[in-house]
Amino acid sequence: MRLFFIGDIVGKPGRKILADKLPEIRAEFGVDIVVANGENAAGGNGISRKMAEEIFRAGVDAITLGDHIWDQRCFESEISLIENLCRPANLPAGNPGREYVVVEREGFKLGIFNLLGQTLTKTKADCPFAAADRILASLVPECDAVFLDFHAETTSEKVSMAWHLDGRIAALVGTHTHIPTNDARLFPKGLAFMSDAGMTGPWNSCLGRNWENILKKFVDGRPRAFTMAEGDNRICGCMIEIDNISKRAVSIEPYVWPQFPNTLSALEKSLAEEESMRKAEAEKLASADINDID
């Protein structure tokens, strides 16, 4: 069973590249199940039912969330109506929404749940380690394998959770920092792990926001609006292969498209392609305006 996990989808740019590219990714890699973190899907702040439905139409099978879960007004009244979307399972009791979801493909059932880290995280959350034990007590008898999106700030908390769950779940991938890490690996008892899947959205930015205002705040300390960025859109995530017989992960590979330019020639090519796309979009809009006038 091949699982494709997509790191934090940020705003309209993230949703657009997902809709454009995901069908091709599913076909090219023979992906069975796609899971995506959607907590920044609505303008970089939270998610709405409308945005969740857009992400599902793009080809995502299940959506996980994070600390921005309640940023969009009225989402607390929508969340329980959305199938295959789960909130962090260690939010305090009384929060609405599903603690886990189960997706089935060709008889293989994958349990999916989501947790918030506690270290350096402002959102009120219960102990993620105790919550993981509680959720697994329900999920393991119901599923063939289990996947955890651990939405946490520190790598130490994520690695510790991986050791806690090695041999008990198939895969744990971190989200929240928006920067993909270079530590995709298998643990001794068959858990696939990566500290952070990264961000799906505009990389001409600082973590999806216009970098200028963030830089100014770092320099002078004055508060500013962190508005959505545009340009250099990219999908970040990872591919995980789970053996249908042993129910253990057998491989995990980072996925980045397009690749980051790490040479001058690659940067020049990337900038030229970006400029060409901007011109084509401008010409398309201009043509649409002329047709409207006619």
Q: Which SSEs are present, and which pair or pack?
A:
Blueprint: E1 2-6, E2 8-9, H1 11-29, E3 33-37, H2 49-57, E4 62-64, H3 75-78, E5 85-86, E6 100-105, E7 108-116, H4 128-139, E8 145-151, H5 155-165, E9 171-175, E10 185-186, E11 192-194, E12 199-202, H6 211-220, E13 233-242, E14 249-257, H7 264-293
What's the quick description here?
With 294 residues, the protein is α/β, with parallel strands linked by helices.
Structure description:
This protein has 294 residues and is α/β, with parallel strands linked by helices. The chain folds into 2 domains: 2-260, 4-Layer Sandwich (Purple Acid Phosphatase, chain A, domain 2), CATH 3.60.21.10; 263-294. 32% of the residues lie in helices and 24% in strands. It has 7 helices and 14 strands. Strands 1, 2, 3, 4, 5, 12, 13 and 14 form an 8-stranded mixed β-sheet that branches. A 6-stranded mixed β-sheet has the order 6-7-8-9-11-10, with helices on one face. Strand 6 and strand 7 form a beta hairpin. The protein is globular. The model has no long low-confidence stretch (mean pLDDT 94).
Offer a few descriptive terms.
alpha/beta; 294 residues; globular; 32% helix; Purple Acid Phosphatase, chain A, domain 2; 8-stranded mixed β-sheet; 24% strand; 2 domains; 6-stranded mixed β-sheet
